[in-house]
Amino acid sequence: MKERLLELKAEALEKVANAGGVKELQQVKVEYLGKKGPITEVLRGMGKLSAEQRPLIGQMANDVRSDISSAIESKQATLEEAALEKQLEEEKIDVTLPGRPIHAGGRHILTSILEEIEDLFIGMGFAVAEGPEVEQDYYNFEALNLPKGHPARDMQDSFYITEEILMRTHTSPVQARTMTNNEGKGPVKIICPGKVYRRDTDDATHSHQFTQVEGLLVDENVRMSDLKGVLNVFAKQMFGEDREIRLRPSFFPFTEPSVEMDISCKVCAGEGCSVCKGTGWIEILGGGMVHPNVLEMAGYDSKKYTGFAFGMGAERIAMLKYGIDDIRHFYTNDVRFLNQFHKA
Amino acid sequence: MYVSLNWLKQYVDVQGLSPEVLAEKITKSGIEVEGIESFGTYVDHLVVGHVEQCEQHPNADKLNVCQVNVGEEMLQIVCGASNVEAGQKVVVAKPGAVLPGNFKIKKAKLRGEISSGMICSLQELGVDAKYVPKEVEDGIFVLPEDSEVGADANTLLNLGDVILELGLTPNRSDALSMIGVAYEVAAILDTSLELPNEEVTIVNEKADDAISVDVQCPELTPYYGAFVVRNIQVGPSPLWMRNYLTASGIRPINNVVDITNYILLEYGQPLHAFDYDRLNSKQIVVRTAKEGEVLRTLDDEVRTLSSQQLVITNGEKPIALAGVMGGADSEVINDTTTILLESAYFQPQTVRTTSKHHGLRSESSARFEKGVDPDRVKRAGVRACQLLSMYAGGEVLDGVVEFDQLQYEEKEVTFSTSYMNRVLGTTISNEEIQDILRKLKFEYTLDGETFTVTVPTRRQDITIVEDMVEEVARMYGYDNLPLTLPEGSSQAGGLSRYQYVRRTVRNYLEGAGLSEAITYSLTTAERANLLTPVDFAEMQLQPVSLAMPMSEEHSHLRLSMLPELLASASYNVARKQQQVALYEIGSVYVSEESTLTKQPDELERLAGVLTGNWLTHLWQQEKKQVDFFVVKGIMEGLFATLDLSEQVCYRPAKIQGMHPGQTAEVVVNGSAIGHFGQVHPTLQKQYDLKQAFVFDLNLQKLIDQVSREENYTAIPRYPSVSRDIALVVDEVVQAGDLQQTIMETGQPLVQHAIVFDVYQGEHLQAGKKSIAFSLRYLDPTRTLTDEEVETAHNRILDQVKERYQAELRG
């Protein structure tokens, strides 16, 4: 009997080892461990054994059963694993195929530039001030030291609606308005972005509508060196730490002294090229110390208060930063243009 | 202003600086050098030649064979110019010379004849064609007879001179003259200045016997001086003068005109020479024109004058538009022998008005408009007489016949060193300021630290302390100003609430797939009346138009951004872009006045256009066109982002320009703030668009509704129960009404009722539709029982049945 059990065990283990699939393994299980299987049969014949032999054989039969059973379980696990692997292999996909697109839009490049400048000056304690695009002659010109008949009004031919109302030619009237509203008290610390309009025929470098952003600081003891310091911070952050800045004397009716700021040309690094017309410098903005007439007209005591102001064109900055060659692109809204500036 | 360096060097020593370095110094001190150009090209082996012999080429009709004496040798040169003649002094490029364009001159045979060089035209030497005198435009340049054979022709022709192009700001009209520029350069380089002398030999005959001057409007002509010069021989001016004029961008004409132009450039004082004999009178009367009076000006235009314009007359009729242009009838011509030279001070505004009125901007008007240096008016006339006697054989009559009420005095500006330093942020000393004033040649007195500066009349731009601050700062050097940051009181900066929420709106829309567009605010009259916002419906709007538009395209202020946005969409579709989704935030300009007496209201709106594909066809997704519900989804998402979902409802709307069945107006807290939907097919067609969907909201009203209060709602701790119902109703019943009834009736347990299916078709009776809702019941304080849900659910079913005859779908 003992031999029979060992024989059965060897036979069963061999079949388990050879089983090629779960089904076959089940058959082995039924065949050897089932109620009608040979081991059960051996156990049934145990009645003929002696009392000493009986538990031994019983024990042995149980061991054989358990050995076969665990062999089957282990084989089962191996087979299942193989089957899963096979299935997963069949589920393989081409991971190089494109994903389901999430189509995000984005800001217009001019808005991005304005927001970048706004945020930069917000960091220095400035507020963002906005004002009307259809302006009174008074705020657009007169309050900015440009009385009627002033030769500098020629510099900016304007779209008038009536004799007293026009499309603003710069964002400076927002400065005049903000100062007036502040009733002669300091500080006034604002950045003014917005649309402006001039009588120009649209071409690659002219646009009857464009975008300006200006800054104004009026307080006691504002110095020209402060203007230089603030513009220096601005230029380095906006265009890169490696860019040099240069201030040149200039003229605007609303500032005295007046400055224009150049940054070193990115293309040639100051060597001189076609982008900077051989000078190595690119003009970025104009500014200066607020003219005492402007302060006085807005209700400030120009003996006590001084201030600086500066302004620039957003299109120009975008054109320089990205090498855009035609100002009309900003207003054509070609999606092939707009979609280029969605990256952060 | 073009400045010839060779000319400038007559007044000031530029210390051997290269043009680039000099230009940089000038730019940094306040006058921008916008360009540096070379006048012609300096050419080696370029000499003066004398054409001894000139014969026709034996083998070529149009060529001549010339024997040219170039000093140490005689060269045979084949020349194709039609104006070459024996006896001329010409410009010869000898073998070895290289002309502009890398054209190398070599000894060669031309049709069998040896040619050892080239006789040159000015263009061949790199001189811009517009500066070449008319008579030699098509030929070689003939030098004056007294030119020395064999001498360097570069010097004679001023070749290789450098021209600085100055971009003058309106305040620096002092630099509209060579002397003005010389003062500036002398100050920058701290060097001395050599100014022309104004000595003139006169004949013993009084000018006031020849002419009288009567000024009838002294306020417009505070000074008028008339010089008389007789025995003039009109001819070419000296070559050096022609060179300088040419380099300055003025074409030489004859010695008389050239001398007046030369003085205009040298002194900044415009002069005018009349042919004395053609004045037909012995008097000059300056007055305003009579209405409708005519004058034929030098450019041969007949101009009708008005009473705001100042004219010079011969006592009878106008002979010149004061300060702008002379008349043709008294123009200096070849046989003019006596001239009357005018040197005057005209009031800037009158010259400006007249020149603007006639569209005549001349070198002369440009200077008068800015105000010439009162101290130089008469001196310039004297200097011109000097040159007329030197270069036109003129005899100057004794005296200047003048009207003189020109009152000017040098202004005084007082400032202290500490004020200067406080404004500039510097620590400049008294000595440094003194040094700057010395360089500028400004006189001053110093008392302690208080400077009183006497501003010379040439610098009319300096009137107040701040002007002197700039003057000191620019000479001190903007480069030398320290970098500081403002130290004053601080304020809370940052964005306003409105600006902050507006950025949130942008972020949402961009995340939802829309790109920001910017369109023009000025549009056509037609578009200004198109798609007017629904929330303006009750206003009597008048589109605002420009007084003088540049074009019809941009003549009216928009009342809606949609017409231009649709044009942008159309532009993209025409360029085969299949996915167009744009939004814009911008102002519209609202007025009810037919003639504006005040500014229009500017209201900021949010608008957008979507057309073409929403989803493109790809390997893993079907194409989906934009439709009403894509736009509505974007709108709903926007209101959810702003936490306004509860306050918003949608109503079908009929709006001009919109599809009558696919347009909804957006109602927030009871008032319409905008609309969205499909554009009317007729309008779509006008824009060459198939299906275009738009939205237009009053952004200000929308943002005004956004609450700052944001309360946290606890996450439910008890399970919710879901129930679906399909309701069969008449097809006219709106889903929104059913949903509202469900939500109202289901309070407080129903959390949401979402439409998950809409069916209409063969399985239903005609005229009926089925709308399926998924409802969620929840009590945040405990677990709901089936009975409670059942009760609420039945109540809902009763209500929808009662209100809308809704039946549960079997």
UniProtKB/TrEMBL annotation, chain A:
<dbReference type="GO" id="GO:0000049">
    <property type="term" value="F:tRNA binding"/>
</dbReference>
<comment type="similarity">
    <text>Belongs to the class-II aminoacyl-tRNA synthetase family. Phe-tRNA synthetase alpha subunit type 1 subfamily.</text>
</comment>
<dbReference type="InterPro" id="IPR004529">
    <property type="entry name" value="Phe-tRNA-synth_IIc_asu"/>
</dbReference>
<comment type="subunit">
    <text>Tetramer of two alpha and two beta subunits.</text>
</comment>
<dbReference type="InterPro" id="IPR045864">
    <property type="entry name" value="aa-tRNA-synth_II/BPL/LPL"/>
</dbReference>
<dbReference type="GO" id="GO:0005524">
    <property type="term" value="F:ATP binding"/>
</dbReference>
<protein>
    <recommendedName>
        <fullName>Phenylalanine--tRNA ligase alpha subunit</fullName>
        <ecNumber>6.1.1.20</ecNumber>
    </recommendedName>
</protein>
<keyword id="KW-0648">Protein biosynthesis</keyword>
<keyword id="KW-0460">Magnesium</keyword>
<keyword id="KW-0547">Nucleotide-binding</keyword>
<keyword id="KW-0067">ATP-binding</keyword>
<dbReference type="Pfam" id="PF02912">
    <property type="entry name" value="Phe_tRNA-synt_N"/>
</dbReference>
<dbReference type="InterPro" id="IPR004188">
    <property type="entry name" value="Phe-tRNA_ligase_II_N"/>
</dbReference>
<dbReference type="GO" id="GO:0004826">
    <property type="term" value="F:phenylalanine-tRNA ligase activity"/>
</dbReference>
<feature type="binding site">
    <location>
        <position position="256"/>
    </location>
    <ligand>
        <name>Mg(2+)</name>
    </ligand>
</feature>
<dbReference type="GO" id="GO:0140096">
    <property type="term" value="F:catalytic activity, acting on a protein"/>
</dbReference>
<keyword id="KW-0436">Ligase</keyword>
<feature type="domain" description="Aminoacyl-transfer RNA synthetases class-II family profile">
    <location>
        <begin position="106"/>
        <end position="320"/>
    </location>
</feature>
<dbReference type="InterPro" id="IPR002319">
    <property type="entry name" value="Phenylalanyl-tRNA_Synthase"/>
</dbReference>
<dbReference type="GO" id="GO:0006432">
    <property type="term" value="P:phenylalanyl-tRNA aminoacylation"/>
</dbReference>
<keyword id="KW-0479">Metal-binding</keyword>
<dbReference type="InterPro" id="IPR006195">
    <property type="entry name" value="aa-tRNA-synth_II"/>
</dbReference>
Automatic annotation (TrEMBL), chain B:
<dbReference type="InterPro" id="IPR002547">
    <property type="entry name" value="tRNA-bd_dom"/>
</dbReference>
<dbReference type="InterPro" id="IPR036690">
    <property type="entry name" value="Fdx_antiC-bd_sf"/>
</dbReference>
<keyword id="KW-0963">Cytoplasm</keyword>
<feature type="binding site">
    <location>
        <position position="467"/>
    </location>
    <ligand>
        <name>Mg(2+)</name>
    </ligand>
</feature>
<feature type="binding site">
    <location>
        <position position="470"/>
    </location>
    <ligand>
        <name>Mg(2+)</name>
    </ligand>
</feature>
<keyword id="KW-0547">Nucleotide-binding</keyword>
<dbReference type="InterPro" id="IPR045060">
    <property type="entry name" value="Phe-tRNA-ligase_IIc_bsu"/>
</dbReference>
<feature type="domain" description="FDX-ACB">
    <location>
        <begin position="716"/>
        <end position="809"/>
    </location>
</feature>
<dbReference type="GO" id="GO:0004826">
    <property type="term" value="F:phenylalanine-tRNA ligase activity"/>
</dbReference>
<dbReference type="InterPro" id="IPR005146">
    <property type="entry name" value="B3/B4_tRNA-bd"/>
</dbReference>
<dbReference type="GO" id="GO:0006432">
    <property type="term" value="P:phenylalanyl-tRNA aminoacylation"/>
</dbReference>
<dbReference type="GO" id="GO:0000287">
    <property type="term" value="F:magnesium ion binding"/>
</dbReference>
<keyword id="KW-0479">Metal-binding</keyword>
<dbReference type="InterPro" id="IPR009061">
    <property type="entry name" value="DNA-bd_dom_put_sf"/>
</dbReference>
<protein>
    <recommendedName>
        <fullName>Phenylalanine--tRNA ligase beta subunit</fullName>
        <ecNumber>6.1.1.20</ecNumber>
    </recommendedName>
</protein>
<keyword id="KW-0460">Magnesium</keyword>
<dbReference type="InterPro" id="IPR041616">
    <property type="entry name" value="PheRS_beta_core"/>
</dbReference>
<dbReference type="InterPro" id="IPR020825">
    <property type="entry name" value="Phe-tRNA_synthase-like_B3/B4"/>
</dbReference>
<feature type="domain" description="TRNA-binding">
    <location>
        <begin position="40"/>
        <end position="154"/>
    </location>
</feature>
<dbReference type="InterPro" id="IPR004532">
    <property type="entry name" value="Phe-tRNA-ligase_IIc_bsu_bact"/>
</dbReference>
<dbReference type="Pfam" id="PF01588">
    <property type="entry name" value="tRNA_bind"/>
</dbReference>
<keyword id="KW-0820">tRNA-binding</keyword>
